[in-house]
Specification:
alpha/beta; Rossmann fold; 7-stranded mixed β-sheet; 31% helix
Length: 335
């Protein structure tokens, strides 16, 4: 038998998105762990296997992180609510895709809108152009859901998706940039490369944000090579990046040089590659464990297959993938 304290009232999105410091984050993380241990049968079984019950989990690094592969074979839910939407990963040909059963899509919307505002400001100040052809070609993409809503929330008449019409997109970029319009161009890596190979640009008011992923259209390349080509092709000083995945409802962002930050309700821990229950010191390479408190109704503690480093200022970098893992569509940084 196990004993632990049940929260008097369920945790709400207001609790999650009002976090302002590390102490609040750690406290709420432990409370969410207790809730998810109680309500998520798959996660509870995993924790019990490790003898990590709420009775013994007293600090953040005691919390078990569910391997991300579980999303491919199990229904990871911490709620009795029926899923409002099911997000699916792109996967590679013949591979098993992940499924994220989202019981309350409003939490996802609040997470990416507040996250964008936290890093970039009011979405209505931007014209949002999306170059995500491979994602538009399938159903269940959380990235398309987010991009579509950002386009709508921008309220800019020129905001929209561009599938294969690179000529029209280029014309729009030149026209809007010359007017001084703040532009966010969010695109999958291979499509951004296609555009730079066809047209040479010199943009002054545009943020180029790559979401990673060659989708089998091109060979994978390291970040420095990709960003070098894109900076030259678009005539910009920096390439921004988004770190997100099907299994998460929050995103990290990089404003250049591959250094990512997370919003206050999200954090990264770096585990030892030889001992998954131990953690690396800042500056050392290991597997990335993600805490996403917006995943309140699924699992907030996920061990990814990404390799990276965390730094003393709480930023992190992504260095690659574990050799035995699938290449995830939103991550191009492989060895």
């Amino acid at each position: 038998m196990f004993t632990f304290v049940i929260m008097k009232a369920p945790i709400t999105s207001k609790d999650i998105f009002s976090i302002t410091n590390a102490e609040e984050f750690n406290s709420l993380s432990l409370k969410i762990f207790c809730e998810q241990y109680t309500n998520n049968l798959v996660y509870r079984e995993f924790c019990n296997h490790l003898n990590k019950t709420p009775n013994v989990v007293k600090k953040l690094k005691d919390i078990p992180f569910l391997p991300i592969e579980f999303f491919k074979s199990k229904e990871i839910v911490s709620s009795n609510q029926k899923a409002e939407i099911i997000f699916t990963s792109s996967g590679t040909t013949g591979s098993t895709t992940s499924k994220h059963f989202v019981a309350d899509v409003a939490i996802y919307e609040e997470s990416y809108l507040k996250g964008f505002d936290y890093f970039y400001g009011d979405i209505t100040k931007y014209c949002v152009l999306a170059l995500l052809p491979s994602y538009l070609e399938r159903q269940g993409s959380s990235l398309i859901y987010m991009a579509d809503d950002l386009i709508k929330k921008s309220r800019h008449s020129e905001s929209g998706f561009y599938l294969n019409d690179l000529k029209l997109l280029t014309q729009k970029l030149i026209e809007l940039d010359k007017k001084g319009t703040k532009i966010l161009l969010i695109g999958v890596s291979f499509a951004l490369l296609d555009l730079t190979e066809s047209y040479a640009l010199n943009l002054k008011n545009t943020i180029i944000m790559e979401t990673g992923g060659m989708k089998g259209r091109r060979k994978e390349m390291i970040r420095e090579e990709l960003h070098g080509i894109l900076k030259s092709g678009f005539g910009v000083d920096k390439i921004h990046s988004e770190y997100g995945m099907t299994e998460l409802l929050s995103q990290g962002y990089s404003k250049g040089n591959g250094i990512f930050e997370t919003p206050p309700w999200m954090d990264i821990l770096v585990r030892d590659t030889e001992d998954a229950l131990s953690y690396q010191e800042n500056g050392k390479t290991g597997g990335l464990n993600v805490i996403d408190l917006a995943n309140i109704k699924s699992c907030s503690f996920i061990a990814t297959q990404d390799l990276g480093k965390k730094f003393d200022d709480n930023t992190f970098s992504i260095l690659g993938r574990f050799d035995n893992s699938d290449i995830r569509g939103c991550n191009l940084l492989v060895f």
